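1st attempt posting a full record on here, be nice pls
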Amino acid sequence: MNVIIAIVVLVLVTGLTVAAMLAVRRRAPEGSYFTDGDRASGVFGVLATGFSVLLGFIIFLAFTSYDESRQGAETEATIVAQQVQTAQFMPKDSSAELTGELTCYARSVAGTEWDALNEGNLGDAINPWGAELFRTISTVDPKTATEQSAYDRWMDQTADREQARIDRVHGAEGIIPGPVWVALFVIAGVIFAYMLFFADRAEGAATQGMLMGSVTVVITVLMFLLVFFDHPHGGGAGRLQPTAMERTLGLIDVQLELAGLSVAPPCDEAGNAR
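the predicted structure (as tokens):
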């Protein structure tokens, strides 16, 4: 979510809850609706503690998923750069083809595939250049010991790259199931309703507004944090970006230049086949 939108929503939600508290305060008895404030505070402590523990645990799990996506993107980019080096030890008739397809794979990840992740419509789609790489490597017939070693290394790197891609995209559509969201909003609604019973016309409006506003701000910010970690891709500050793969594309160019190789990738800059 965009930071500006989040701030606007936070202000609106806080304003609505504070307004509700002040409206209830006008008709509230002195000392609040509770005759035993200590007992009421104890019950509120149970509600707030249960909600905070549940929300904190879910945020931890969502952050773990976010970090796995970030690490997956870094690992995938690193392996692509390593496979470019491995490809140079393959038979000459397939080395250039594999290198070009790896370049297209990297462009596709940083281009069209990342756009699909940002929009949340990648689904179960595979990277088309991953399929092309498999088709090409299946025709390779290593002859020498060096080529055989490179071929074995390539297969291991391919498996690692595919696993890294799974880690990168697994959280694109959200990892928190609907019932958990329902439970969080229901508990937040219960806390809000319970807070209204603390309305006290003997206290100042600013005090009552602070009472409700502070609770609302904390809960809303934590919910926004959960939304952020649940959808690590997209626009906005802190979202995952294809920085690692873009860095790998630059590294591929440097590697090929140092090796004196010239490869024409069969795709455009966004990774679309020509």
